Amino acid sequence: MSTDATTAAASTGGPQDARLRQTIATACRILAHRGLVDGILGHVSARVGDDRLLIRCRGEGERGLRRTRASEVWEVTLDGDPVDLPDGFTPPNELPIHSELYRQRPDVGAVIHAHPPAALLAGLAGLEPRPVFGAFNIPALQLARRGVPVYPRPVLITRAELAREMVAAMGDADVCLLRGHGITVAASSVEAATVLACNLNQLLEVTVELARLGATPPDLDAADLDELPDLGSDFNDRLTWQALAAEVE
Fold first, then answer.
1. Does residue 184 lie within any of the structural domains?
2. Which residues are catalytic?
3. Of 4, 113, 159, 242, most Cβ neighbours within 10 A?
């Protein structure tokens, strides 16, 4: 996935850095608006160097992710040391989720950790998303076809060794279901990661609702899959991001 609006390869300082901070803040508001995060739990980051990232931090005036501002996005090292982090602000306790993905996955430019209720229910119930729908959401269908890896431990991932376990469970996938906890999503940009998180959430919501209904529809057959092309990142990421961002303007 890729978008060139505000890539996670941005360097610190200047207008590009300010735009990236604003994009992270917008992503936080989108996740809250869409129900993937609640209150103060959940975080979004972007890589800005070999050993640095911008991440949504918490401060004394914390108002929750739904009201995130660019002034709550600060730069730290992968080890959590402050670069421009002011007094009164702290990075998330689960910073290692972000740090270890950036260390081990050079393809990753942005990371989201969130707590969608559907992820909690699907994980606890042992439900496996299946490719049962089509044009309703083609990117979500493709997630189901590739499979959603699961990290089985419902722990707070505050240590590098726990984060490495999660990264190992995730493999080369762009998403991971954290059983009894939430989701982790990785992509080339904040915009792409946000859209991916929303698509994963929709897939998990359908999975949970089908289980609630006791319905077991068949997987799509090859002929129908052939009629569902990849519409490309411009449609799947850029335009979808613009629409999501407009919802929280």
1. yes
2. 94
3. 113
